[in-house]
Amino acid sequence: MRDTLSDFYANRKILITGAAGTVGRELVRQLYAMDPAELRLMDNNETEMFFLMEEYRNRNVFCFIGDTRDRHKIEKLSEGIDIIIHCAAFKHVILSEYNPFDLVQTNIIGVENVLSAATSCGVKYVLFTSSDKAVNPTSVMGTSKLMGERLVTAANATRRGNRTIFSSTRFGNVVGSRGSVVPVFMKQIMSGGPVTITDRRMTRFFMTTAEAARLVLNSVVLSKGGEVFVTKMAVVRIPDLAEVMIEHLAPRYGYRPSDIEVVEIGAKPGEKLYEELMSEEEVARSLELEDMFVVTPAFKCIYQSISYEYPDTVADRAYKSYVSATEKPLSKAMLKKYLVENNILEGIEDDSHWGVVQAGRKEIKGMDKRRRTVFMAGKTVL
Fold it and tell me: What's the pLDDT score for residue 364?
């Protein structure tokens, strides 16, 4: 697939929204190695865009400050573009619940602006990056992602001739991304614990940043119009992750693994014990490929001119929903190998609020176990 990807992206002009994010930066890195004609990068994070500009200075990479809420900006940046990869979004569940109308402006109106710009400018491919939280959503954020998927699929109903192909890709946790559990556990271990898990029954789909970016790039190549691509991912039990990380990292920071306590604090509001990447309803209209599932549109009668046929097809339909609770998790030995081989435990994202969290840890460690559990359950616990 590597040669196919390189051939596909070579000499193409590509726009990436949300380029300063974890997956966006990895997309830039992988795409740059494929010799595209031009990479246009857009994000509303000025500082991170400055660093990207410095990293790719004097090359065919151009950085722009902008927001997907600005339809005019998106249209200007889409002129002459072959492919748009739309990563920009609000992603944090709790913050989105506090700011629902801002979320709509970015995660729904922003998608509409990208689709409109692509249609107006004759862009060949648009890929929308979605989330496991779009499946049977319990939150504003998940619902917005589901709406984004539906808008992207519906955009194919108005295609004329060989115009823009719109599709989506859906994946779960990206290991090591900002705000994800691995950097949080690492920092807790560094400070001597405790390591906080919300529920010992919790399971999650995991993939590396490189794997997530590769899924996105593969999805563009395969897309026919209207599909949602779902990658096959490793499944991890969160208590196993905590234990493996403590065993591996505690000695690095001067602790014995037995020194680091694991504290169960209870699930957060709206948090599921498992992740869903493909619902029961979607099974009957899904195909299975070697590395992913393809969820085809529910209203195929609207897309009669599209033939949903793909190389490396394993089965012409899936046979069960894709849920982390019903998939076999990695053993602790396999999990440790996965973390080490992918260098996931070799760095910690820099979070400016970490000093405040460290100070809070000292207060927490001084409490007895009962008071500590109550204290942590009543706060936003990293």
Answer: 38
